[in-house]
Amino acid sequence: MKKITRKEKRERRKEINFFQEFIKIKKHFFKDINTKLKTVKDKRHQSYIEYTPDIILFNVLMKNITSIQSMNQMTTEFNTEECINNVSRVLGYDDLEELPHHDTINNFLKRLKPIEIEKIRKYMIKELFKKRCLEQYRLLDKYWTIAVDATGLVSFDERHCEHCLKREYANKETGEVEKTIYFHYVLEAKLVVGDMVFSIDTEFIENEESYEKQDCELKAFKRLAERLKKNYKRLPICILGDSLYAVDPIFKLCKGKDWKYIFTFKEGRTKSIWLEFEELKEIEDNSNSKGCTWVNEIEYKENIVNILEAKLIENNKEKEFTFITNIPIKENNAEKVLFAGRSRWKIENEGFNNQKNIKNNIKHLCCKDYNAMKNHYLLVQIADILRQLFECGYELIRSLKASIKEISSRLLESFRRELITVEDIIKLNKRIQIRYL
Ligand SMILES: [Zn+2]
């Protein structure tokens, strides 16, 4: 590609209507998404409804995509004639006078069942698979890598709802409880495709009745795994997880679902496997020139596991990685398995960004309603799929080499200042060419 000068870059950026380009991407990948947004099961009293669900949900999606931090700020930013017009055009209305106030939106989200948003995400992920545009990212040309990780959503000094998790901090000397916190945690499963990570499933870690037997990440993973298998029956999956997952029940669970796994492996988690690995790696001496050493077929409680260790020097620093997997390691796949195992960090990175966004949402949710909180969380995940396809997946935007912050602020400005016309919308029916990295 020809190198462009700074001046050319500025000129080109000026010409682009970011919002129009964004809706091109939305339409290209998810042509039925407007209908999906409109037809969620609406629990509100039908005679008081001023805004249909698509208007409400599209507002929240745009808020998340343009990185607006609070619902209040959203109401202010979106309060322009152009913005109201743009929402009308995109959703096919011609009579919108105002956009919904954040209270109206939160009242709607308090009653909406989270499964309604999960259904939209499932539609989106299935469309991406159908388009076959991400095939190049399969591990060993076969497996879709899905990283799992839990992240904190919000915490309180007092019990906030009946589903809160509880943690007590005791005084080390007296053993008396000094502090108790109540919090919410969520387990995310994200499809890792190149630089993009798309939320494919979410399980909230929450208590059912009592604090006697609290919910935890591994219990939540079992629920998530059941649903993932049900929703994507024949999908060849490889689960990526941290060392918490490297235990017998999870090995068996993955095997039972015909899934592969690559988990971070630590000595303390499963000591007997570690000792056997240390012993066998000297005897067998399986290694490659890239710093990988491995031992296949270690038996452990009716599981056959393989261990891959890598000692690398990157940026003048020594780095060490150890993974446990049910993929047999060979000379020609060691590096690929290592790369997949290491790509798990992307979920932490992405999770962190989302968390910032979601925490701000919750802070501004005056009632801190748990159901609305879940819906906000899921809408962040959906918005993130759209945002990443726009930023990383679209050659036009990628070629600008603009920062994420720049792109979202340009998109926001365009959404609230540049008019989209009916003709623009008609033009969207033309097929566009999307090329990936
Ligand atoms: Zn709670």
Q: How would you describe this structure to a colleague?
A:
With about 425 residues, the protein is an alpha+beta fold. The chain has 17 helices and 10 strands. The protein has helices spanning about 5-15, 20-30, 35-40, 55-65, 70-75, 80-90, 100-110, 115-130, 215-230, 250-255, 270-285, 335-340, 345-365, 370-390, 395-400, 405-415, 420-425, and strands spanning about 145-155, 165-170, 175-195, 195-205, 235-240, 260-265, 285, 290-300, 305-315, 315-325. Strands 1, 2, 3, 4, 5, 6, 7, 8, 9 and 10 form a 10-stranded mixed sheet that branches. Helix 4 (about 55-65) crosses helix 14 (about 370-390), helix 7 (about 100-110) crosses helix 14 (about 370-390) and helix 8 packs parallel to helix 14. The chain is globular, with a radius of gyration of 24 Å. The mean pLDDT is about 90. The structure holds zinc ion. Zinc ion binds near residues 161, 163, 164, 184 and 370. Zinc ion binds near residues 160, 161, 164, 184 and 370.
In helices, the fraction of residues equals 40-55%
- What kind of assembly state do the chains in view correspond to? single chain
Strand content: 15-25%
Instruction: Describe the sheet with the most strands.
Output: 10 strands, mixed
User: H/E order of the elements?
Assistant: HHHHHHHHEEEEHEHEHEEEEHHHHHH
Amino-to-carboxy terminus distance: 13 Å
What's the β-strand tally?
10
Number of DSSP helices? 17
Parts with pLDDT < 50 across at least 5 consecutive residues:
none
Which molecules other than protein and nucleic acid are bound?
zinc ion
- Structural class determined from secondary elements: alpha+beta
| Mean of all residue-level pLDDT scores | 89
Shape: globular
Radius of gyration: 24 Å
